[in-house]
Specification:
There is one protein chain. By secondary structure, the chain is of the alpha+beta class. Among the domains are: 160 residues, Flavocytochrome C3, Chain A, domain 1 (Alpha-Beta Complex); 130 residues, Methane Monooxygenase Hydroxylase, Chain G, domain 1 (Up-down Bundle), CATH 1.20.58. Helix content is 39%, strand content 14%. The chain has a five-stranded parallel beta sheet with strand order 5-2-1-9-17, with helices on both faces. A five-stranded antiparallel beta sheet has the order 11-15-14-12-13. Strand 18 and strand 19 form a beta hairpin. Helix 3 packs parallel to helix 6, helix 3 runs parallel beside helix 13 and helix 16 packs antiparallel against helix 17. The radius of gyration is 25 Å and the shape is globular. The two termini are 39 Å apart.
């Protein structure tokens, strides 16, 4: 085991990034024209990085498995993006955003990275406004804000319930400008299947053209991985169906350490599971918790009556409802962090108060908000004595303006009108805080291989605050990697083109081809989804919202057995040289089979509860997470050895010099 060098600059926290930028090596614009960079993933992190690097003069190749970068999963981030601009005058600051981020992550994030994220947040908003992103505005023209979980200020900028989509369109437009200039070559419907390392440095990739099926070699002086998170290891998640871990896992197998894989976030406001037929889950934005009140019946008999259809939620008076988040966490109420809200919902449902047919749902109710906004708008319209019906109509108008597309989406899926009856929600797998270990420069343990956004581990600790995913992706892409990758590439100005005829490229392509042949020639009995669902059941039941030593030990053994069965009995129809969705899924699920075991191993190693990692053996008398700062205040970075069960643990000790580390409380 070794201790990792995070390359955090010396000096005061607020000066680290500025000083670091001044110390970095620069590259002459004429020399940038001779340097090639590969970017894997074209969501917010990858798209913004590709556009900015190309604008600086580098030759950029982008790769995405979708038919267009506009389909990146970033569009699903509906609720907003954080920035400490303090437009509301409610006491926000860079330090406050930094503190909320570290506290929200249960003191398991790197202090310097979290502060840099807060420091850059305001620049992101300015950049995106300049691009034409249609953020919501108040009547006077100022950008509007709302709150998200884990904070006491309003710092979330938004575009209705389409924030991720609008931000992605901004990055995509910036990319298109560089494509038109010839500085970006876009490879859509291509998937990276291996990293090529030459003389210890990342020098290219093996990619598969998903339409023709052909394998391609692409070389570069550096490779940037921005391929998102790995939540689909659970099969059912809020992630897009194609979201996967393949790019991250391939570089892990080539020497990039994988950090904190057990830190997975369970989002509290998801449409509940309805049956075994489902292949994904739909997220209701956390922004809804600004105005929606979460509750279950106070009496079990009322919950039972609602489950059986004998009562409707609106039959219960306010006194008969348990607004349990407001009861347990009066300071933050319905806006506690995601991990806290998720565990609280699970506790109520496990105790028998769940409200849908499966008993795995709670209510998210907008009746109070509709009435409150209705009275306000009636006064604005000069109606000082509105009827109950007028109040409701005014209130519905306001809610529709703020969340209309989310309400429409819910009604289409559930066939219930959320303006009239409360939504039903339940926690589901969402974001992954773990990822590839990177230093302050966002470089992995493979020189020349950089990792951005959700694919790395760096900024969120054990739990990400709502509306911070978009912030990290754009900060990494627009404002961090353009500086830090230049420092690395300054040594390559005389290197020249990287050839794709080297033995390393030969070996990598042969390995990929052998793997594809093995899958296609297997002729087993079961589909890829058959195994993926089995893996998902193991992960959710034994490495999901709650874990314990026995379950994690069992999970490791069961995943290993399932992996062996997968390679023995999976059936992949079709051929390589065609559009073959089953073959795509098979390569990704094969990686999930290995990652799942490492996640269980990491969770078993961490004998504490922190953020999204909740070990049942380690909790307070009130059911809150119980950290062990003396023994586990470190980043767990795992080195691949050929077998997930035998990976080697490396530690990066976490030091907090600017904030007091204490038990998290939102009461």
């Amino acid at each position: 085991m070794s201790k990792l060098d995070s390359k955090i600059p010396e000096g005061p926290l607020a000066d680290k990034w500025t000083k670091h930028k001044n110390d970095l090596n620069l590259i002459n614009p004429a020399n940038k024209r001779n340097i090639d960079i590969i970017v894997i993933g074209t969501g917010l992190a990858g798209g913004s990085a590709a556009a900015t690097l190309a604008e600086l003069g580098y030759n950029v190749k982008t790769f995405c498995y979708q038919d267009s970068p506009r389909r990146a999963h970033s569009i699903a981030a509906q609720g907003g993006i954080n920035a400490s601009k303090n437009y509301q005058g409610d006491g926000d600051s860079n330090f406050r955003l930094f503190y909320d981020t570290v506290k929200g992550g249960d003191y398991r994030s790197r202090e310097a990275n979290s502060y840099r994220l807060a420091e850059l947040s305001g620049n992101i908003i300015d950049q995106c406004v300049a691009q034409g992103v249609p953020f919501a505005r108040e009547y006077g023209g100022y950008l509007d804000n709302r709150s998200f979980g884990g904070v006491l200020v309003s710092r979330t900028f938004y575009a209705k319930g389409q924030t991720g989509q609008q931000l992605l369109l901004g990055a995509y437009a910036a990319m298109n400008r560089q494509i038109n200039r010839g500085k970006i070559t876009a490879y859509n419907r291509h998937e990276m299947l291996d990293l090529v390392v030459v003389d210890g440095k990342a020098r290219g990739i093996i990619a598969r053209d998903l339409v023709s099926g052909k394998l391609e070699r692409h070389s570069a002086h550096a490779v940037v991985i921005a391929s998102g998170g790995y939540g689909n290891v659970f099969f059912l998640s809020t992630n897009a169906m194609g979201s996967n871990v393949t790019a991250s896992w391939k570089i892990h197998k080539k020497g990039a350490y994988f950090a904190n894989p057990c830190y997975t976030q369970i989002h509290p406001t998801c449409i509940p599971v309805s049956g075994e037929h489902q292949s994904k889950l739909t997220l209701m934005s956390e922004s809804l918790r600004n105005d929606g009140r979460i509750w279950v019946p106070k009496k079990k008999e009322d919950a039972e009556a609602i489950r059986q259809g004998k009562k409707k939620p609106n039959d219960l008076s306010l006194e008969e409802r348990d607004f349990y988040l407001e009861r347990r966490y009066p300071s933050f109420g319905n806006l506690v962090p995601r991990d806290v809200a998720s565990r609280a919902a699970k506790e109520r449902c496990d105790a028998g108060y769940g409200v849908n047919k499966t008993g795995q749902a709670v209510f998210l109710d907008f009746a109070s908000a509709i009435e409150r906004y209705g009275k306000e708008r009636a006064i604005v319209h000069g109606n000082h004595n509105p009827s109950h019906e007028e109040i409701r109509n005014y209130g519905k108008q306001v809610i529709k303006e703020k969340y209309g597309n989310l309400f429409q989406m819910y009604e289409k899926i559930v066939d219930q009108n959320p303006y009239e009856t409360p939504m039903m929600i339940y926690p589901a797998v969402h974001y992954t805080m773990g990822g590839i270990w990177v230093d302050y420069n966002l470089q992995s343990t493979i020189p020349g291989c950089f990792v951005l956004g959700e694919a790395n581990f760096s900024d969120h600790g054990a739990n990400r605050l709502g509306a911070s995913a978009l912030m990290q992706g754009l900060a990494d892409g627009y404002f961090v990697i353009p500086y830090t990758i230049g420092n690395y590439l300054a040594q390559d100005i005389r290197t020249g083109k990287i050839p794709t005829t080297s033995p390393e490229f030969d070996e990598a392509e042969k390995s990929v081809q052998d793997n594809l042949d093995r899958l296609l020639n297997n002729k087993g009995k079961h589909s890829v989804d058959y195994f993926h669902k089995k893996l998902g059941h193991i992960m959710w039941n034994k490495c999901g919202m709650a874990r314990n030593a026995q379950g994690l030990t069992e999970a490791m053994a069961e995943i290993r057995e399932l992996r062996e069965e997968f390679w023995r009995d999976v059936r992949v129809p079709g051929t390589q040289f065609e559009l073959n969705a089953e073959l795509e899924k098979a390569t990704r699920v094969a990686d999930f089979m290995e990652l799942g075991e490492l996640m269980a191993k990491d969770a078993l190693n961490r004998n504490e509860s922190a953020g999204g990692h909740f070990r049942e053996e380690f909790q307070t008398d009130e059911g809150e997470a119980l950290r062990d700062d003396e023994n586990y205040m470190y980043v767990a970075a795992w080195e691949y050895t050929g077998d997930p069960a035998n990976e080697i643990l490396h530690k990066e000790e976490l030091n907090y010099e600017n904030i007091e580390v204490k038990a998290r409380s939102y009461k």
